[in-house]
Design goal:
Elements: H1 2-21, H2 25-33, H3 43-73, H4 79-97, H5 102-107, H6 123-128
Helix pairs in contact: 1-2, 1-4, 3-4
Length: about 130
Amino acid sequence: MRLRISLYVVAALLLGAHFLRAGNLAVMLLCLAAPLLFLLRQRWSLIALQFLAYCAAGTWIGVAIRLVQLRQQLEQPWTAAAIILGSVALYTLLAGLLLNSRAIKERYPSGPALPGAAPEDRSQDRSSGG
């Protein structure tokens, strides 16, 4: 489980470095703060982390596309950049997918959908039978 969380933290650091280089300090701080959601041990936080990882992978794909287009326009080599950014996107996607493991889900129990929300009563759903 520590390895899965560590992979996620590295993915968040990579994205934070990207936004720092772009001069976007607010988003960089959000990237660095996102892994702190692991401390909450709630299912909603795990889902939020997965969603953020998938959005980050999409961000890397978008960056790769823009960089390849720019390099093609400037008639510069672009293959290495595409491979590197594609690899980072796959790594980030994998970091999010690995949060679906049974071990992780057991550590993040289902409960209230949002902080402060009351748990749902599912006993009526089972008895109605359809």
